[in-house]
Design goal:
This protein is of the alpha+beta class and about 300 residues long. It contains 13 helices and 12 strands.
């Protein structure tokens, strides 16, 4: 079983392009607020800086692709000292065509940008397990496939035809998978909590074995001991390694995954309460209901009712 494929199926990603892209030259800056969105940027041509509070600037070059969680505000700019324009207002004011920033012809840059939208039942699942920023450098051997997918997605959005919505959803799903499985991903804050998450966990042979086991049988009575034995390491070494790499302990990860499966089933009404409970390791519907309310903040029935009113 592939844990990332599990996630993609639950998240149901779809595309939302931020305008038609951006062309800038000379001195310019564009600020983005902290909204918790998962944004992407592809530097089609030129160079610019990505500035975030309390972090060193990140230089982006032609062909680079960035996947960014907006847990912090940030700015794309030609110079750190400039006062940027607000991206929300700039995109809203530009009703069609590409956004134009700066003046002159020197230091020109072209950027495609957009965000990923997810099923409301589990929209926090992927972003909560990924580093705040993932940078795919232009030298990546797989980036040409990502460029091709993005070009198709932009073309379909610009000139829609029959089944365009279906095609765009499939393309963005493929683009996200392509980003996540690229083996040369760069975590700019290596050695800090940013270098944690499911993405990092699946690259570690020990942690990956445990994650796959939990996904294959979420209903099994997993313990730290049983997972450590499965992975062939000591209990303490396994627990420390898992937490250091993923950012949460193995049992916390298991609970998060179980609740994700439960929310999916509740939202779409695919099973009765008792069936959901047994499938993810609870011996009764009441035990499941208590655990769900503790983890999610409401009862399963209330979640199902509220989710049926949202896309």
């Amino acid at each position: 079983m592939d844990p990332f494929l599990d996630l993609i199926r639950l998240l149901r990603p779809r595309a939302a392009l931020l305008g038609r892209g951006m062309d800038a030259a000379g001195d310019w800056g564009l600020s983005f607020p902290a909204r918790g969105d998962l944004l992407f940027f592809w530097i089609e041509d030129g160079t610019c800086q990505l500035i975030r509070p309390d972090y060193e600037p990140i230089w982006l070059e032609t062909g680079d692709f960035v996947l960014l969680r907006t847990t912090l505000s940030f700015t794309l700019t030609s110079k750190k000292e400039l006062e940027p324009l607000d991206s929300v207002a700039a995109v809203a004011a530009k009703k069609e065509g590409r956004l134009k920033l700066g003046s002159g012809q020197e230091r020109s840059v072209s950027v495609h940008m957009g965000k990923f939208l997810f099923s409301t039942a589990n929209e926090d699942l992927l972003t909560g397990l990924l580093p705040p920023i993932v940078q795919v450098p232009s030298r990546s051997p797989k980036l040409h496939r990502l460029h091709y997918l993005l070009t198709l997605m932009e073309s379909e959005g610009r000139d829609p035809g029959p089944t365009s919505e279906f095609i765009i959803v499939r393309l963005v799903e493929l683009a996200l998978v392509e980003i996540l499985r690229t083996p040369t991903l760069d975590f700019p804050e290596t050695g800090t909590p940013a270098n944690r998450g499911l993405l990092a966990g699946l690259r570690d042979p020990v942690v990956a074995k445990a994650i796959r086991a939990m996904h294959e049988n979420a209903g099994q009575e997993w313990t730290v001991d049983s997972l450590a034995r499965l992975c062939g390491v000591s209990r303490s070494a396994f627990a420390t390694r898992f937490r250091d790499i993923v950012g949460i302990g193995p049992i916390s990860y298991l609970l998060r995954w179980r609740m994700a499966l439960a929310k999916e089933a509740l939202k779409f009404g695919t099973a009765r309460m008792e069936e959901i409970a047994f499938s993810i390791g609870y011996k009764s519907a009441s035990a499941f209901s208590t655990a769900f309310a503790r983890a999610v903040g409401c009862s399963p029935s209330r979640f199902a009712e509220s989710s049926s009113r949202t896309p």
